[in-house]
Amino acid sequence: MKLLIRFFLNPGSKSYLRGLEEEFGESTNAIRVELNRFEEAGLLTSEMSGNKKVFTANEGHPLYDDINSILRKHLGIDRLVEQVVDELGNVTRAYLVGDLAMGLDTRILDVVIVGKNIDLAFLEICLKKAESLIKREIHCFVVKETEEKRYLKDYPRTLLVWEKEKNGSTHHRS
Hints:
With 174 residues, the chain is an alpha+beta fold. The protein has two domains: 2-64, Arc Repressor Mutant, subunit A; 76-172, Beta Polymerase, domain 2 (2-Layer Sandwich), CATH 3.30.460.10. The chain is 41% helix and 27% strand. The strands form two sheets. Strands 6-5-4-7-8 form a five-stranded mixed sheet. Helix 6 (120-134) links the parallel strand 5 and strand 6. Helix 2 (17-24) crosses helix 3 and helix 5 packs antiparallel against helix 6.
């Protein structure tokens, strides 16, 4: 499951065997077996970078979107967007940060909401409702658009999960 989350929740995410060993704290042999299975199935692609074989999700695979959708549902990201972000109104973007954005399954969702004039009391109500639905704790940080880049630079990996389009419509990201 860790490999699926690592690659299929994070489009464009790349990693190599030793890096995954350090991330997951598991033996290289167990990780190698899984990587090879996913690559043989066409779900992962690889390329050599120096002496390292670097893996990434095959976004062109017919099951990529389905796997991504299942993971978003399993982790509660779809509910987070429906119950929190869509209801707040003045949100321009929402990101996952922290362990989950790096592909590590965790019971805590770290979320950064970018917007203005967010009703923090209403946000707290929405978060509690979402937490009870997804059975995960949500840590939420609200920042203004002018603070977004500065705030997000502290996170090695961010995952954009929602964005308000220029025309005012919304777009749920994968």
